[in-house]
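Table S5 (text form). Sequence records supplied for joint modeling of the two-component complex.
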Amino acid sequence: MSRRRRTPKKRGAGVTTVVVLRLYIAGGAPNSVQAIANLQAICREYLKDGHKLEVVDVLEHPRRAMAEGVLVTPSLAKLSPLPAANVIGNLSDKAKVLLALGVKDKAQ
Amino acid sequence: MIATRSKAVQALPKLATGIEGFDQLSRGGLPRHRTSLLVGGPGAGKTVFALQCLVNAARRQRTAGIFVAFEESPRQIIANGATFDWGLASLPEKQLFFLDAHLSPTLVKAGDFDLAGMLAMLAAKKQEIGAQWIVFDGIDVLLTLLQDPVAEMREIYRIRDWLAENALTAIVTAKLEDRTSEALHYGFLQFMADCVVRFERRQEERVSARSIQITKYRGSSYAAAEFPVSFGPSGIEVGAAEPAEIEHYASSERITAGFERLDAMLGGGVFRGSSTLISGVPGTSKTTLAGKFAEAACRRGERTLFVSYDEAAEQIARNLSSVGIQLKAHVKSGLLRMYSARTEGISAEEHLIKLRSLIREYRPQCMVIDPLTAIAKAGRMGAARTAAIRLIYLVKDEGITLVVTALSEADDPLAESTDLQISTVADTWIHLSYLVRSGERNRALTIIKSRGTSHSNQVRELVLSKSGPTLTDVYSAGGEVLMGTLRWEKEAEESARKIRQRAEFDQKRRELHSAEARTSAEVKALQVDLERQRAELALYTGDNEVRNVSSSERENELRRRRSADPTALSPRKSGNGAAK
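The corresponding structure-token record, covering 688 residues in total, follows.
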């Protein structure tokens, strides 16, 4: 209930909020390469005003990834603002990514 | 680790799973550094099997393992594993590491993904703890999420290559219920695996029966049949058939089957370590005979286990005490262990597991199962049959002298053979039946077979009294066997006849006696007469002489008194003196 009430407020203020994202990839695996490209495109288009993106290569930091609960790659975590969200896949389904990130799709 | 080597060719190296029965039918365990696939419906025991492999490896071989849980959370798995005596919670993470790969339902999937990252993480973990085993539990959950057969195939190959690179012995479990709809998955998975084990759970006559079957094993021979599986206190147990070669130590020591007359019928009792089957319809005193055997064993000071189904131990002890069989004292002294269980809704396999753990715990020398047929109450007859036969072999392997009772539906002993077929593996078979005649039922005991003994071919009547069971001779009259009152009547008649005979005999003897006495009395009287006559005769002879003497003396006296003839004076004087 409370979330529902807060959501419109956030959307209004969402333009100024910095979205913190972390993308886990597995080296040069095709899905990982695609995911980076797709996410960058989404950020350019929808999160112009402010976002922080960290890309973690699981092949290089397997323990960290495990500690952070990563299972499959690529995997995107929205850390802030709350609520947190997790998206897996190469992020080719833009609508689903936007929904998960809580960003309004301009096309709608 | 068991590496089986044959003389000529090098056999596939295998790792023992430590799972009761499985290492036997897989001829040594799962292939080392290869992938084994466990497939089957939910609740068939795949996860327990996989987890048990890791626990056994960690506990017995001190080799570490990784458990990747796609379906359930590790917490759930540990909680489930805690129902077994593995001490799962106390295993350190270095020995057994759980990766929670349980994907959250709130997770959004936006596009294709792969397992490259996860495998990299697992490789790092493997390096860290030196794992040799890895389990992917519920891989179907992950594959379903891919929603693309091509991607599924790609990931399966990825896993296969990764496993080969990392020299891990892997167990992959997949929930594949319907063979046709999941055929695609199944095909890939099958190809990837060197060993495929199918788990099945069926509902059979109100009991869920689990079974296991190895359907593929590259480079190895295996027992291809379907084997029953059950959960015991130490986890999964596979009811692998006993080795085809039967090796039991055959003792020639005889022990009592309960009481003297029965032993006599068996040619001196039963062999130690043998199994005896007592069959019969309800109420034919099967339990009494079994109880008598148990009591005799306790009296010898032997540890005895009395297993009763569907009847409380207390009740059995009370009932048996009414026929002079006292078990309570032996229970108190710890010599006799009584175990009772219900059979409703419990499969034969579960009973077998329970009895096995009881035997291992109590180590009895003699054992009674009353009635063994009760284990077939729930579940398929075929399953009960194998369980019963395995139970008998298990007991024999331990060298325990066993008496089992079997309830037969019909009075014909051959009806039993269609039932559990215990009679074929039992060494001695005693059949109890009723003979109904002239309004009564009487118990008859026959020995149908007794291996290695010259047993009696006679039918005996089993009579119960306060001092215990005993056997009596039966009469056969006009081709019919007489028992009970008829036997009693016959016996009474027989004894009356004997009494009559004796009386007649006595009478005759007495008569003869008196006749003899009479005759000898007559003889005596005649003898007396004879004596008297003789005496009289003697008397007469002596009288004559005296008379002769006295007449001559009188003449002399007369002559002297007359004094007329002096010549005869002096001899007259002397003659007178002699007469005085």
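Note: The longest strand of chain A covers residues 19-25.
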